[in-house]
Amino acid sequence: MILLALLVAMAGPAPAVAAETAPAPATLVDLREADAPTKLALACLQGIVNRGAERPVLYCVHTAQDRAWFDQVYAVRGFKPEEKTPAEAIVRFADRIKGEVLYDPAQPETVNLATALTGLEDALPVTAATRDASRKLVEDLTRFKERREACRWAVENLLPRCNQAKLAVLKPEQMGLRDYLVAEKILPVGLDPGVKEEAELLRTLLGKLEPGALLFWGERIGTPVETRALFVRDPGDAMPALARATATRLVPGADVANLSFHARVPAYAPLRQYKRLVEHHLASYVTFLFSGNGNLDFGLGRMSTLWDDAARGYLPLGWELHPLLAELAPALLSYYYVDAWWAGVDQFVMAPSGAGYLPPADPKAFEAFVAETNEAARRADLTALSVIDVSASDHDRPWARLALQPAVRGFLAAGTPLGPTLSLGKPLIGETVRVADVEKATEAILAAAAKQRFVLAVVDAEKLTPTDVAQIAAGLGRGIRVVTPYYFLDLLGERVFLDTVGPTMALAKLTKVTFSPREPGPDEPITVKATISGGVIDARVKYNINGSPDFTEPLAKIGDEYHATIPPTLRGGKLTFKVRVTDGLFRTTWSGECALDIKATDSDGDGLCDYHEELCGLDPKNKDTDSDGLFDANDTAPLVPFPRPEGVEGPIITAIATAPRTPPAAGKPMALRALVFDPTGVKEVTVKVTAGERDLGRGEMKQIGTTQVYEYPLPTLVAGQTITFTIGATNGAGKASLVTESVPVTVGIRIISPPTNTLIQRPTTIRIQAAGKVALVRVLLNGFEVARLAKPPYEYVWNPTQYDAATHEVMVEAFDEKGMLLDADAVYLRVPPKRR
Ligand SMILES: [Ca+2]
Ligand SMILES: [Ca+2]
After folding, report:
1. How far is the CA of 14 from the centre of ligand 2 (A)?
2. Do residues 159 and 70 touch, judged by C-beta distance below 8 A?
3. Does one domain contain both 248 and 292?
4. Whole-angstrom Cα distance, residue 489 to residue 273?
5. pLDDT at 394
């Protein structure tokens, strides 16, 4: 039995590709089969021609992933690929080549020197075999017979002419990064910090750079535990220690390519995160963080593979992103952000440790590091920080200073064994479980959750995928809730505060909520301001767009007011929000609901506004960009035609689901929905509903508006039944198709009175109806349990005189005898101001 969630299909297209009016040609060279001298020549040429260009013009394919990025992000965002061989590309850009630099493949360090020189002289690196005598010979590097000698010459003669704010330590065989080195005139050296004399030379070299200089290191760094071990044992001259000692910002990463291209294409969507709200009345919380250990190439390589995993987008997950990607690959970063916006469950955390792999030891450099980290957090909305602690004492710990930065929201300290705590009011937790094996991790999380309420599970991204994590999550049971990193930190902060400070008599009063602008477009953030007096433990905005799941932003105190920014909705429609305040007695109150229309043009009338379609690379004037019959708004891959299932000649019937929830709940009004489409159009859709042998009715499924979703109202269902739907449809060509799906009916609970938004002035009975085998009904007021009802009638008398004049949430939950949550329902009730 497969029931696709309708919401997923309704959520619309996959990310991140867009058409602009005049495509710019980009030369695409496949280097996967090329020899080393060709790769070097092309990477250097790429740096020369992309440097300073308004739009980059040369893209090299070193790996399949390079090709995938071009196709996913650039080919449909106004870049027209012109595939050329390496030789053709050199001819194409011959006028940009001012000479040649001769190097010796037998003396690998001359490759690094040649890279620097081609950057300085706009020359092409050549060997004796590839030398073109018609071009001027700028420099002959074949005189160098020894690595250190070559490096010393480079430090004396090239470094003064090179970029003083960036350096690279690179093995000569690494080609990917070289285009960027050439474009930015960065000197690469092949020094090994593990060799004593070379470490000294490297130390001298780093000392000549500007404070806070970036050090690109062509190696992939290990786990934070390994880094910590390095410092505990002996800092020695390992690269992280050397960078920390010389106040350079280490940027590790082995497979990085095309940065001269990526860095010159701006982000095409706001780099803002959308944070799913989770109500907090369950026992323990776990957050999974996919960690790339702070390597720059994680976001460019391995993460994009994991991103395509079938389970990604269905389970709340955290992903570490290197903050420099906002500068070095903004368009690729927007790809992740737009995609995360669709799914609503992926969140990004700043990779360790902010504006450099490790905070520098030098106090002055550290201040600069802190300011840079705050700026990076603000720029890409990466306000949860993954930090590595290699300090000997609490005094030196980086998070205390970072916690004072306004953009920093909390810390996840990978590799550090540390329970949940607060650092200057900002939540902080160490790694509870390292996830490298499904079974062991499941056991470890269960064991940890028995001891502490919050579990940070850091996932080894090299070994495990989102599918593996979904398997772990399934093994945790209902007592442990998987949440995104941001809400995890918010809940943790609130909990630790309550545990350490305890309830206080500081009562809070929410008196006013305003927002601006009054008529925002889909690309504009919305600022919400609230006036709250008294002691506030937590204040936040809860919002949704067109009935989406709820998202949240915290309100931060600015002057006398509290402010939050709702990110741009990216689509037109109705935005609704409420403000929730929790005070010192852990009482929560809600504001009334604010609703505003986000005005946006939808030229083709498919339900997606033009701005939204442009973001996603769709044709705003064609409701079915790939002509597969499925409108863009319903198409999860709107640029790739939907493959017609074998043997199906009539319309494609998919995303069969019951609403408002699947599986259907007993005793509640329910409807059946299906997405039905065909390139020739759909003529008729009918359904037959049965429970075992019993006929529960049949009829026509009606199209909802002009969407491709068809609906049929269901009779009242009984828990324990299995319902079978047989849907038939015919298309414009008269061909028919038939699909059958079965689903069991589960328990349903609902509040039958009073209805939501009722004004409550005197003690009022909340009447609850539960259908099916229910062992327990819980009643929660503003998230806190006020009653447990073991048998019907399920009723609770609520006395509003003890509550503030505000909107209050009443939630009911049904559990089975094993304590599994079966269903829930909620209403909002208003208490008017009291008369004296
Ligand atoms: Ca449209
Ligand atoms: Ca389509």
Report:
1. 11
2. no
3. no
4. 15
5. 64
> Which of 23-27, 64-68, 279-283, 684-688 is least confident?
279-283
Q: Residue 816: inside a domain, yes or no?
A: yes
Q: Which tens digit of pLDDT belongs to each residue from 559-590?
A: 889 999 999 988 888 999 999 998 877 778 88
Partners of 167 in the beta sheet? 187, 215
Q: Residues 694-705, buried b or exposed e (16+ Cβ, 10 A)? A: eebeeeebeeee
Quote the CA–CA distance of 385 and 411 in Å, as a whole number.
5
Could you tell me if 540 and 474 lie in one domain? no
Quote the CA–CA distance of 627 and 641 in Å, as a whole number.
Answer: 7
CATH number at residue 583: 2.60.40.10
Residue 14: which residues within 8 A CB-CB, separation 6 or more?
Answer: 339, 342, 616, 636, 637, 638, 639
Nearest to 809 by CA among 833, 779, 776: 779
Q: Distance from the CA of 436 to the center of ligand 2, in angstroms? A: 39
Number of domains in the chain: 5
Q: Are residues 722 and 707 in the same domain?
A: yes
13 CA distance to ligand 2 middle (Å): 9
Q: How far is the CA of 660 from the centre of ligand 1 (A)?
A: 26
Q: Which phi-psi region, left, alpha or beta, contains residue 243 (left: φ > 0; alpha: ψ -120 to 50)?
A: alpha
Q: Give the closest ligand to the alpha carbon of residue 622.
A: 1
Please tell me the number of the ligand nearest to residue 631's CA: 2
As a whole number of angstroms, the distance between CA 224 and CA 222 comes to: 7
Same domain, 417 and 542: no
The dihedral of CA 604, 609, 612, 614: what is its sign?
Answer: positive
Contact between 616 and 18 under an 8 Å Cβ cutoff? The reply is yes
- Tell me the C-alpha distance between 80 and 311, whole Å: 32
What distance separates the 2 farthest-apart alpha carbons in the chain? 99
How close is the Cα of 708 to the center of ligand 1, in Å?
14
Q: Are residues 207 and 297 in the same domain?
A: no
Cβ atoms of residues 666 and 747 within 8 Å: yes
Choice among 12-21, 198-207, 460-469, 554-563 with the minimum mean pLDDT = 12-21
Nearest ligand to the C-alpha atom of residue 609? 1
Joined together, the tokens standing for residue 812 give 């009911």
Report the separation in Å between the CA atom of 630 and the middle of ligand 2, taken as the mean of its atom positions.
4
Kind of pairing between the strands at 508-516 and 556-558 = unpaired
First-to-last C-alpha distance (Å) of the chain: 61
Q: 3-class SS at 276?
A: strand
User: How far is ligand 1, taken at its centre, from the CA of residue 264, in Å?
Assistant: 29
Which CATH number covers residue 337? Answer: 3.20.20.490
- pLDDT tens-digit profile of 15-63? 334 444 567 899 999 999 999 999 999 999 999 999 988 899 999 999 9
- Please state, in angstroms and rounded to a whole number, the distance separating the CA atoms of residues 223 and 216: 18
- Are 49 and 114 in a shared domain? yes
Same-domain check for residues 4 and 52:
no
Rounded CA separation 370/403 (Å): 10
Q: Are 385 and 350 in contact (CB under 8 A)?
A: yes
Q: Which backbone phi and psi does 393 adopt, to 5 degrees?
A: -130, 165
- In sequence order, the β-bridge partners of residue 312 are none
Q: Report the separation in Å between the CA atom of 631 and the middle of ligand 1, taken as the mean of its atom positions.
A: 10
- Residues counted in the chain: 836
Dihedral class, residue 586 (left if φ above 0, else alpha if ψ from -120 to 50, else beta) = left
* Ligand 1 centroid – CA 634 distance (Å): 12
Instruction: Enter the DSSP assignment of 73.
Output: I
Decide: 295 and 214 in contact? Cβ < 8 Å: no
Q: Which helix (H) or strand (E) holds 230?
A: helix 224-233
Which domain does 543 fall in, by range? 508-598
Over residues 778-818, the pLDDT tens digits come to 999 887 889 999 998 999 999 988 788 888 889 999 988 87
At 609, list the tokens: 């506004």
Give me the phi and psi of 123, to 5 degrees please. Answer: -110, 170
Q: Distance between CA atoms of 73 and 616, rounded to whole angstroms? A: 10
Which residue's entry shows tokens 């600069």? 368
